[in-house]
Amino acid sequence: MSLANGYFDSFRGAVNTWECDDNGHMNVQFYVARASDGAFFLRHELGLSPSAIRETGRTMIALEEHYRFHRELYAGDMVRMRSRLIDMRPRTLVVYHELLNAATDETAATMVAVSAHFDMKTRKLAPWPDEALERGRALIGPLPEHAEARSVRRETRLPDITLAQADARGLIEIYRGPVARHHCDDFGHMATQFYISRYSDGSGHLWQGIGMDKQRLLRERRGSVVLEQRLNYVREVVSGDILIVKSALVEVAAKTIRLCHFMFNGETGLLAATSEVTAVLLDLDKRRAVGLSDEERAQFAPHIHTLEDIAR
Predict the structure, then answer these.
(1) Confidence band of 161 (pLDDT split at 50, 70, 90)
(2) Burial of 60 (0-12, 13-18, 19+ CB in 10 A)
(3) CA-to-CA distance for 277 and 23, rounded, in angstroms?
(4) How confident is the model over 253-289, as pLDDT tens digits?
(5) pLDDT at 187 exceeding the cut of 70
(6) Sign of the C-alpha dihedral, residues 141, 146, 149, 152?
(7) Secondary structure in 3-state letters for 36-92
(8) Can you tell me the distance from the alpha carbon of 289 to that of 298, in angstroms, rounded to the nearest whole number?
(9) How many CB atoms lie within 10 A of CB 194?
(10) What domains can you pick out in the chain, each with its CATH number?
(11) Is 188 left (phi over 0), alpha (psi -120 to 50) or beta?
(12) 230 closest CA partner among 110, 64, 91
């Protein structure tokens, strides 16, 4: 284990053209993918090396992830990630990942994940082995101030509603599709990147559902970007499952909007995952956040749901 300033290196690479979206920068799903890649090296630091995982049938999975997006990354940018633990608990831990532009050393994104020791045979959480506890405690450090939650709280959950309840509440359907084998990781369930890709790919349908034409936004050189996001994993999703995502607008401010996404198993109607998001409109030429007009806020008002109404 090699630590520099209390961190260990967990990823090094570059941004590819195909990882960028219609806003011209790296899409959120690939920030999340970098955190998933970094988790492999975290597991290794805890003694859960690839060979140990294959031998014991026990690994580490994410229960919740909180992201803040600080600076844009573009195709060709070199990136690196540094990681450390924030807390070590009997069955879970809290890990901090910081994604940096390797050329400038500026923070591009911060990520705080609650992860758990997982038995792949029973599909249940298990206590950490003594070696992992000992190694983990040596990696603990404070959470930097710039990674603290702001508009989206950590370690909270959205209501555990069903698909039928989401329909009854009038939530907007933004995604419908299957889970392919290549969306799944070596632990047998859908990888983190492909949860957030559903939310990201459905954003146009969401804007359309609340009365904002996505194509008009692009013609006006405005795009929508995420500032902060929390993901919660409720029930496992595996290859062959069918998914439906329903979303709600829950708050509109001068510049930002807050959204909630509910991902359901389309066969059972049970909740699989949720996400709470703070987003903003971006001037695609000046690369700055732009406010919502009074007309746009008034247009959004009829579409606002409270979490209390969604949960009732």
Answers:
(1) very high
(2) buried
(3) 18
(4) 989 999 999 999 999 999 999 999 999 999 999 999 9
(5) yes
(6) negative
(7) HHHHHHHHHHCCCCHHHHHHHCEEEEEEEEEEEECCCCCCCCEEEEEEEEEEECCCE
(8) 19
(9) 19
(10) 1-148 (3.10.129.10), 150-312 (3.10.129.10)
(11) left
(12) 64
Nearest to 199 by CA among 173, 170, 227, 179: 173
> In angstroms, how far is CA 299 from the centroid of its own chain?
28
pLDDT one-digit tens code per residue, 136-153? 999 999 999 999 999 999
Contact 81, 34 (CB under 8 A): yes
Q: Where are the beta strands (DSSP E) in the chain?
A: 8-14, 58-69, 78-88, 92-101, 107-119, 124-125, 172-178, 222-233, 242-252, 256-265, 271-283, 288-290
- 273 contacts 237 by C-beta, under 8 angstroms: yes
Is the pLDDT at 29 greater than 80? The verdict is: yes
User: In terms of residues, how long is the chain?
Assistant: 312
